[in-house]
Amino acid sequence: MRVGYFASNFGEVPAGIGNSGAAVMRETGFNTGNLAFWRGAAGLVADEMVLLPWRWNGREGRDAIDVLIIPAANYLNPDWDFSDLANTIEAFAKPVLIFGLGAQAQRETQEVVLRPGTVRLLQVLSAQCDSLFVRGPFTAGVCARHGVTNVTIAGCPSITLNPDPALGQRIEQRIGRPMLRLSSAGAATKPENAPVEQALFRLIRAHPGSSLILQCPAELIDLACGRQPDWPAADGGAKYHNFFAPDDAMAAFTTEFARVALHFRGASPWIAHLAERNYSYTINTRIHGTILALMAGLPSAVLGHDARIRELCSVMAIPCLTATQILDGIDDVPALFDRLAFDGDAFDTRRASLARLYRDYLTQCGLTPSRALTNLCGTPHQLTQPASRWA
Question: Which strands sit side by side in the sheet containing 48-52, from one edge to the other?
Fold first, then answer.
């Protein structure tokens, strides 16, 4: 089948895109973590795939496409309105598959009030999809409150990026090793995260070869690349200086930040770097940076600072810590991970189960699951759902 893929890219910023932080942000939806699930969803299928621009109207080139795949993430966000996408899907009027759909909220008790255009998108998707693949039970509840119940809880497709069925066992075997080099996918600059980010920044600076991996914003990516950042007006970088290292002089902060900070233009090079640098552990404040570290085979944990992260971790068996747990354990990282009691077998079982959900649904919809996805599935699994109306 011929697949239209609704994303900026397949998980890697094209070579022709400029190197500035602003250019990278525009190409990645203002967060390079998006590269992880764009790459993950694209890697699920072996069928011919073509990228569709964000402004695609659903009609142009429609006859050359059999099915539309949307890697969605935080679409159920109270601040966003998806009227245009609802119109696009209605105009396309062919099978649609959506993966990773999620609701954005700070707390699980928070009511997610969607804008009318986003409610309409949900309703259109419910009509056009056999099932909406959502990231967890919190999102499923938001969908249900808007009358949408044909959902499948499946986390994020980025969890399938490493096809090794025994990945969790290999990660578990690394726990307990000395802490030589630390990686942190961070710079989640909410004020409440500052104590954790400062502690991680100090630890990274103290261990040669450690790194802070940036997903945003543009000005910090420029600083990491040795360019003069376009700091916000009347700020001069003070916001980030005070967030990461308030006790340092500004010049010392910028020098040290540029020394340890990295960013990546693709999910695959990101994973490759983490594996090749052979970091001892990763402690992160970014969920997709955490997933990519796990895909590189590294013991990894994330600060669960919002409902989105906690939801994804619960579904994909990813270690999720509170700020207190990180701050209390930061002086002995191997012991911190030992207390997590990460179960590699349970992680592998969960990944295989999620992979089978994706594989069976793709097959049901007439698509060809990729060899990597099939390899991850392990034991064959019988379909229990009715045949797709689109097959």
Answer: 48-52, 2-6, 67-71, 96-99
CA distance linking residue 286 with residue 290, whole number of Å: 6
Asked if 51 contacts 7 with a C-beta cutoff of 8 angstroms, the reply is yes
Instruction: Quick: pLDDT tens for 236-264.
Output: 899 999 999 999 999 999 999 999 999 99
Indicate the burial class of 59 (C-beta count within 10 angstroms; 0-12, 13-18, 19 or more).
Answer: exposed
Strand partners, 300: 282
Say if domain 2-160+350-377 classifies as CATH 3.30.530: no
Residue span(s) of the chain under CATH 3.40.50 come to 2-160+350-377, 167-343
pLDDT (tens digit per residue) in 119-131: 999 999 999 999 9
| pLDDT score of 233 | 76
Confidence of residue 40 (pLDDT cuts 50, 70, 90): very high
Q: 167-343 domain in CATH 3.40.50?
A: yes
Residue 217 preceded by cis peptide, ω within 30: yes
Distance CA 376, CA 142 (A): 30
